[in-house]
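Protocol step 4 of 6: structure prediction from sequence.
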Amino acid sequence: MVNVVDEKVNQVVESGKQVRETPGFELPLLLFAGFRSIIDRLHAELAEQGHPDVRPVYGFAMQAIGREGATASEIGRRLGVSKQAAGKTVDKLEQLGYVARVDDPADARRKVVRLTGRGFDSLGRSAAIFEELRKEWAGALGIDRVRALEADLRTMAPADGFRLDVAGWFGA
């Protein structure tokens, strides 16, 4: 990747010319590249810590299940995918030991998906790894820039909060 920042700084310092704006399409690509670099590093570290089978979609699914558990329909709705797609993800998480299906105490006809100890361990380790990755970004960019970036992204993010439906949004 070309070091656009150095190139632009040199243009301004050396020539005194106005720097051309970055093309609009570059912003979402850079945001995605930053997201992807964090997620890829997270999963490499999770693999080292005993969770080699966890994939990004599984992390979103475990977040959708939450502490209290959820039905396949609720998981699908939270992820923006069909009940069947959510069920396939739950099947895989169950095979890997991250979730278990249990009877719903309020309705014996329904099954609730709950995180197992392994699922909670994976999410706990993920949280700790995210803290370390943030520290790395702060070390590279400076804590004030990271805080400013986070504040700016909060300003631009929808006011109704974070959505977990990445898989559905991407059409997966």
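Step 5 (inspection) to follow. The chain has a mean pLDDT of 87.
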